[in-house]
Write a structure and sequence with these properties.
alpha+beta, Aminopeptidase, 8-stranded mixed β-sheet, transferase, acyltransferase, Acyl_CoA_acyltransferase, GNAT family N-acetyltransferase, GNAT_dom
């Protein structure tokens, strides 16, 4: 468990499933910048039971309000590419929690956790080039823009450009 100022980041448990399904499947909550794949609740339940949605390839965590234990978002990290000593992170928040600094704090907490607990040297964030809010989070967290991957993602019927931001271990203070 990683503690923030008003929330905790923790592994997913089976009782999270009813709140998790809308976060992963509802296009209005997912927003206009993430792919619109729909996850089967039965498959999600199986994955939670198998490994808590945490394995070498992908670790998905929930962001939970400290008061009330309400899930307000998800944050994840995955292997960037096989030949990089890196992890890629991503995040999404419920609509009512956006713009309140939760994403920035959650990213900073996960970055510190990953650099303190793994040998990786690099953390990447990729976002739809139109997603200015996510770009602001990356910049506030010290990530540097490295480029644009043209037409790299398929979102709501269109191929979209993705911005690539990265942060190296030595760039993180303390």
């Amino acid at each position: 468990m990683i503690k923030g100022s008003n929330f905790v980041i923790r592994h997913i448990i089976l009782s999270d499933l009813p709140a998790l399904v809308p976060l992963l499947n509802d296009p209005d909550i997912r927003g206009e910048y993430l792919p619109s794949a729909i996850h089967s609740p039965i498959d999600l339940e199986r994955r939670i039971q198998d490994d808590g949605m945490a394995n070498d390839g992908l670790v998905r965590l929930v962001i939970v309000e400290q008061s009330g234990n309400t899930i307000i978002g998800t944050i994840w990290h995955s292997k960037a590419v096989p030949y990089f000593n890196a992890r890629e992170i991503g995040y999404t928040l419920s609509n009512e929690c956006r713009g309140r600094g939760f994403a920035t704090e959650a990213v900073n907490l996960l970055v510190r956790y990953l650099f303190n607990s793994t040998l990786i040297n690099r953390i990447e964030i990729r976002m739809d080039a139109r997603n200015l809010a996510s770009e602001k989070v990356a910049i506030k967290c010290g990530f540097q823009k490295e480029g644009v991957s043209r037409g790299a993602n398929f979102v709501r019927g269109n191929h979209v450009d993705m911005n690539l931001y990265a942060l190296l271990r030595h760039e993180v203070a303390g």
